Amino acid sequence: MIKVESIGPNESIGLDPREAGFAYGMAVFETIKVAGGRVYFWSRHWRRFQKSIAECFGYNCSKVDEQVLLSALAPLAKDYALSDFMLKLSFMIRSDGPSVFLYGRAPFTCPSTASLCLNLDYPIDEVSILKGHKTHNYFENMWLKKAAQAAGFTDYLRLNRAGYVCETSTANCFFIREGKALTASTASGIIPGVIRECLIETMGFETGDISVGELASFEAAFITNSSVELVPVERIEGFLEGGSVHFDTAMHPLIAEAIEQLKIIARAESIDLDY
């Protein structure tokens, strides 16, 4: 059974630097929104977390493991004294067996729109053994996000080694054309985001290859992740030939519909914390 360690807002833990999860980033994580005393999209997050743990570590989580985690969430939320926060789950195999660390942080400040810059220098590896998993080997993602923000953008828009448009360093991307939304497929090397999954399932959004040359043909775009949920994109810069793609900052009807759909799904799929 998984050992659960909750870390309160004023607590710290001892972690042996020789542990593989610390020394080599051999750990996987989830980031889950908690708002109004409810854990958003728990089943989807748990399913993805289970999959990463099984594929990366060969450990199959049980229903008991899930219940142990859930029973630790309410006391943790009470310790943070926040009705809204981001819950973090980190799994690693330690010397005494499998462990999950639970801790929280304040929610991100959500921008009203996002500005992206194409990054052609650091492609996503679509054949990596870590493809599709959120691992503690996250230095590259955070470095790129900070570099993009230092350059005046919300984030970089990354390609994969095949040259197709994938996602930002921390969010999935959708592009709208002729009333349809398109996002990169999981084969491209992206993280299969929970919000992305919701929209594909409920709104029939399509997946496929997206070339850089196509970007100018889209009428709107947006990014998604569990922290910000959905943010429209106002512009994309960084093209080799110069120039940029600007999108209408007015709310596109399909984006407005997606936002409302997410509210419906959140009400149906979130679980209450028993304070």
Description:
The chain is of the alpha+beta class. Strands 6, 7, 8, 9, 10, 11, 12, 13 and 14 form a nine-stranded mixed sheet that branches. It has a six-stranded mixed sheet with strand order 1-5-4-2-3-15. The chain starts with a strand and ends with a strand. 31% of the residues are buried.
**How many DSSP E strands?**
15
Overall outline: globular
* Spans of at least 5 consecutive residues with low confidence: none
- Please indicate the count of domains: 2
* Rg over CA atoms: 19 Å
CATH class of the largest domain: Alpha Beta
What is CATH's topology name of the largest domain? D-amino Acid Aminotransferase, Chain A, domain 2
What is the CATH superfamily of the largest domain?
Answer: D-amino Acid Aminotransferase, subunit A, domain 2
Helix % is 25-40%
Short description:
With 275 residues, the chain is α+β, with helices and mostly antiparallel strands. The chain folds into 2 domains: 3-105, Aminotransferase class 4, branched-chain amino acid transferase, N-terminal domain (D-amino Acid Aminotransferase, Chain A, domain 1, 2-Layer Sandwich), CATH 3.30.470; 114-264, D-amino Acid Aminotransferase, Chain A, domain 2, CATH 3.20.10. The chain is 28% helix and 31% strand.
